[in-house]
Fold:
Amino acid sequence: MPANLSPDYHRAEERLRAAKSITEKIDALEEMLRVIPKHKGTDHMQADLKSRIAKLRKEGGKKAGKGGFSYIVPREGAGQVALAGPPNSGKSSLVRALTRATPAVGDYPFTTREPVPGMMPFEDIAFQLVDLPPLSEQHVETWVFDLVRYADLVWVVVDGELALEGFDEVRRVLQARNIGLYPAGTEPSYLTAAVQKKAIIVVTGLDKAGVADALPVIDELLEGKWHAAAVSARSGAGLEALARRTFEAFGVMRVYTKQPGKPRDDSAPFALPLGSTVGDLAERIHKDLLDTMTFARVWGTSAFDGQAVQKDHVLAEGDIVEIHE
Ligand SMILES: Nc1nc2c(ncn2[C@@H]2O[C@H](COP(=O)(O)OP(=O)(O)OP(=O)(O)O)[C@@H](O)[C@H]2O)c(=O)[nH]1
Ligand SMILES: [Mg+2]
Structure:
């Protein structure tokens, strides 16, 4: 049993026993959480307090933040990234550093209890990050795994000082749900798990002494094939490179459209899977356009400037396309 619970804690516990309404109970539990000593020995108790608070909040219909949340976060932008990691590894800090979302950051585990989406810009497109509660050997609610399964890419976020243990824990917890991970840029093997998610390992705390030096060792021990992305949410180091790697991992290209006689429409490139054709683009613009289009003109690396092409023409990153009906 973890010792050293303070008189404040016992007083709050007393209040909990006496509490009658849900609000009083939540108040007392929150006070217990505030004053409990924050160390490894109380991890279980902290997690337990948090899940009791969450349960009571749900019962009382009173949700944290605005508008509550749904269990599936609708995809937005050029792709969705789920942040999976052990408790306290820096997931929410990353979402704060890379998007306008402001999930709570705490120096204790199990700070995050609900999914928090935010858009991460990369040049002229954006990817959706989804901050998640931690994955751990303790209780993890089923919807967290649903969100990992639903995402296009997983960032396995681990603290640089606990990188290997953290990665192993995440892998074990996911494997128990039949979810496997494979490095972006390689091919999955379905022998180990029914669902295989493309992943990037993100090592946090690059600003801390020793983490940068440990990177080559971490990479080697990760079987040499992961090439972890090292970042610091605090100094901002590595964040741009992570966004670029994420863009590359998605295997998407940006294609711009234009109207005849006008310059390209800069506002909104389409992010299409590599290998997409003019027909795929037409379908993305409007479901009827695939049938009504006659040909297209393309400027860029896949064609001579203004070359007329058919629906089956394969596009390249940065191409500008003018579709004629
Ligand atoms: N020095 C340093 N500290 C960091 C960095 N990223 C996160 N932290 C600290 O690590 C602690 C945990 O950060 P969070 O972002 O809340 O971690 P989390 O993974 O979201 O935690 P849970 O929601 O509990 O799973 C906080 O005290 C952060 O300030 C980093 O890059 N460098
Ligand atoms: Mg968090």
Remarks:
- The pocket of magnesium ion (ligand 2) is lined by residues 91-92, 103, 111-112, 131 (CB under 6 Å).
